[in-house]
Design goal:
By secondary structure, the chain is an alpha+beta fold. It has helices spanning 4-15, 48-60, 81-87, 119-128, 147-159, 191-203, 224-231, 263-272, 292-302, 333-342, 365-371, and strands at residues 19-23, 26-30, 39-45, 64-69, 91-92, 100-103, 109-114, 136-141, 165-167, 170-173, 208-210, 234-238, 241-245, 253-255, 276-280, 306-310, 313-317, 325-328, 350-353. It folds into two domains: 4-173, UDP-n-acetylglucosamine1-carboxyvinyl-transferase, Chain, CATH 3.65.10.10; 191-371, UDP-n-acetylglucosamine1-carboxyvinyl-transferase, Chain, CATH 3.65.10. The structure holds shikimate-3-phosphate (S3P) and phosphoenolpyruvate (PEP).
Length: 380
């Protein structure tokens, strides 16, 4: 099945002229014909990656486009991607404007992007710059956080015959490249979604097996397995599946710099592990669908956990059992899913207001929850 974010990306590509159909789990894509003439409206929804990938692509295609955003997206950072696109030939309405309008033709040259705001800026430029006539360089300032996502982008480009040359704090991109068409690719199982069930296995009372995972994946979030082992969970892996059950869980130290999306699920495990778990290097969680350091803290604390936010992380002191209660998903899919996972260590029921937030990345989340023995009912 797809999700709201995938549908948004497919919808934007369709708006630019691609022909896309989805049937039986298979996307068929006929590429965007060029030039892209006339005004186009791209509905990016609440998807940061869709916005930050499609804006540079629309600029590279020289499209006259309006990108409409939903939820918290208009206030999530777009600078300095935004300034770099303007200084390379595009006219774009000020960040925060909704819709965001772009016109003009992007040109090659040097693009400078700090590595610690969002890897999506860098991935978006990597998708777009090979389409330009001139050559380009992306210069990265400082360390890159969420680096595995950039490696996944590079692998996807390579699969379609597009070359990006990595250098020291720099990526070199020749112009006039063409994406190969007529390829068949298989999309890997999503470790970020799997992480919720693997964490549920670590705190719950039974064994949970997730299948369809590639252990040699480039996805940074496959690191959840090692982290759960460090917590003391029982883990078995092999043949594309991972099985997790509860062990004697002990608090640990976690650097979230490359795997920010794991933090909500891992915080649920930390809440049930004996001793203190510290999450570090997680400042970028404040600029996700919600301020996730704040919303993870509020959510778990409302259910009885001992948790505090720091400037760039969390400190969680585990308890054998939590209480239960009502929490808000804060419009954030990963908060809704983390609350459902933590319900397995709550004595009382957990009510999640706005649980439909899961549709952003995982519409089947609650039906999978029942397959694993969870009980839920929808209320209005
Ligand atoms: O490239 C991507 O699809 C993503 C990159 C990461 O974002 P940041 O680089 O902004 O941390 C990740 O958190 C996000 O959920 C998805
Ligand atoms: C992909 C995600 O969000 P976004 O693209 O909106 O940053 C996410 O949080 O999983």
């Amino acid at each position: 099945e797809t999700s709201a974010d995938i549908d948004a990306t497919a919808g934007c590509l369709t708006a630019l002229g691609a022909r896309i159909d989805f049937d039986g789990g298979v996307f068929r894509v006929v590429p965007i014909p060029r030039p892209v003439a006339g005004e186009r409206t791209l509905a990016v929804g609440e998807s940061g990656s869709t916005l930050r990938f499609m804006l540079p692509v629309a600029c590279a295609l020289g499209a006259d486009a309006s990108l409409t955003m939903a939820g918290r997206l208009p206030s999530r950072p777009l600078s300095p991607l935004y300034e770099e696109l303007i200084s390379h030939g595009c006219a774009i309405s000020a960040p925060g404007y909704n819709p965001l309008r772009t016109s003009g033709q992007l040109t090659g040259g040097k693009y400078t992007i700090p590595g610690n705001i969002s890897s999506q800026f860098i991935s978006g430029l990597m998708f777009a710059l090979p389409l330009l006539h001139g050559e380009s360089r992306i210069k990265i300032l400082g360390d890159i956080e969420s680096k595995p996502y950039i490696d996944m982008t590079l692998a996807a480009l390579k699969e379609f015959g597009v070359t990006v040359k990595p250098g020291r704090q720099m990526y070199g991109i020749a112009g006039n490249q063409q994406y190969a068409s007529g390829r068949t690719v298989t999309v890997e199982g999503d470790w970020s979604n799997a992480a919720f069930w693997l964490c549920a296995g670590a705190v719950g009372s039974g064994e949970i097996t997730v299948t369809g995972l590639s252990t040699d994946s480039l996805q940074g979030d496959k690191g959840v397995v090692d982290i759960l082992e460090r917590f003391g969970a029982r883990v078995r892996r092999g043949g594309g599946s991972v099985t997790v059950s509860r062990g004697a869980l002990k608090g640990i130290d976690i650097d979230a710099g490359d795997t920010p999306d794991l933090v909500p699920a891992l915080a649920a495990v930390a809440a049930a592990a004996e001793g203190t778990t510290v999450f570090r290097n997680a400042g970028r969680l404040r600029i996700k669908e919600s301020d996730r350091l704040k919303t993870v803290t509020e959510t778990l604390a409302a259910l009885g956990a001992d948790i505090a936010e720091t400037e760039d992380g969390l400190v969680v002191r585990g308890k054998p059992r939590l209480g239960g209660g009502t929490v808000s998903a804060h419009g954030d899919h990963r908060i809704a899913m983390a609350a459902a996972v933590v319900s397995s260590v709550c004595a009382g029921p957990v009510t999640i207001a706005g649980a439909e937030a899961v549709n952003k990345s995982y519409p089947g989340f609650f039906s999978d929850f029942t397959i694993l023995g969870g009980n839920y009912k929808e209320t209005t």
